[in-house]
Amino acid sequence: MKVRLATLKDKKSWDDYVDNCPDATPYCRYAWKEAVEQACSHKSCYLLAEEEGVIQGILPLFDFRIPFRGSSFVSLPFCDVGDVFADNDDIKKALLAEAISLAKQSNAKEVELRSCQGDLLETSTDNWHVNVETGKVRMLLNLPASSDELWSGFKSKLRSQVRKAEKNGLTFRWGGLGHLDDFYHVFSRNMHALGSPVHSKEWIEEILVNYGENARMGLVYKNDLPVGCGIILFTKNIVSIPWASTLREFNSLGPNMLICWNLLKYAADNDKQVFDFGRSTLDEGTYRFKKQWGAKPKQLYWYRLRETQVEEGTSSGVSRKMLEKIWQKMPLAMATFIGSRVRKYISL
Fold first, then answer.
1. Which fold has domain 2-134+301-308?
2. CA distance 46 to 337
3. CA 1 to CA 49: how far, in whole Å?
4. How far apart are the C-alpha atoms of 169 and 44, rounded to whole Å?
């Protein structure tokens, strides 16, 4: 068994492995590697384990470098979960050992593994200290065989909210690269309202280009004005929604309900088994929104490996709240200009 870096020649076999791995998300596809490299310029270190040319395990990883702060190895940046997948525990351990070795060679300050596996690492691994963050969950919905069956399983209140959005004059349309401006019109404004730097338009474009038939963009309009948007990515079995946004001044009309229903409908009617709504904090607003569709929580384990033990404090949360307020008060054009340039250095 051999562990090595994946190359473009491995793209098809890598994606085949992802498609046939029940827990591997669309973020593990080779397309995420290409999009991050092209739009954000971070160096990929996608590890595969093989025997006689057959892949037996993968660990998608990036050397995530921040100016003046050095390097961290992350699996994976800009999403909820990367993780390591292998045919057995020995192969998994070999992939993890190689990831730590690469990080040490690059003088990285830490390795971060965003995982759904609670037993992935011990408290000390290869002389690196391990901290585990468990404050977030993924919200997963097991899909029936058709959207009709999915619809009939919803509570009447939920169905009426979707119908209300349509009665309010909202319409859903599928979009593509030609609708990127409409998507970004909503996305950038929503991120500004949340006090968060927005991804660049180039990043969204690279996602759509590289994922190709494994990505779809949905848009909600009030007349010809885009008021809601979302993107889904998929493997053979799993659909994930990395980004969804609405304009707050139209939220009373229900654009979030209309876009969510149509993305779920697509997933159910195209033989997908699981819809991944993404990460949430238990009992907070986004958690309750996802739960009403029938999604159930699955614990996330975000491992941080460092050579020295670091005590986790609370000051970062306070600082983040302050930065959000400052960002919200910044003019939209300025926030978009600055945010789209600094966002690639924020791995969340």
1. Aminopeptidase (3.40.630)
2. 31
3. 7
4. 45
58: DSSP letter = E
Q: Which DSSP symbol is given to 237?
A: S
Give per-residue pLDDT as tens, 229-276.
999 999 999 999 999 999 999 999 999 999 999 999 999 999 999 999
The type of residue at 337 is: F
- Whether a cis peptide bond, with omega within 30° of 0, leads into 348 is no
**CATH topology for 144-272?**
Aminopeptidase (3.40.630)
Taking the domains of the chain in order of start, what are their residue ranges?
A: 2-134+301-308, 144-272
Quote the tokens at residue 206: 């690279």
Beta strands in the chain (DSSP E): 2-5, 43-44, 47-51, 54-59, 62-66, 70-75, 85-86, 110-115, 124-125, 128-133, 137-142, 170-175, 215-222, 225-234, 238-246, 274-280, 296-299, 301-306
Tokens of 196: 């968060």
The rounded distance, in Å, linking the Cα atoms of 75 and 56 is 18
pLDDT tens profile 96-143: 999 999 999 999 999 999 999 999 987 777 778 999 999 999 999 999
Q: Are strands 215-222 and 225-234 parallel, antiparallel or unpaired?
A: antiparallel
242 vs 79: CA distance, rounded Å: 7
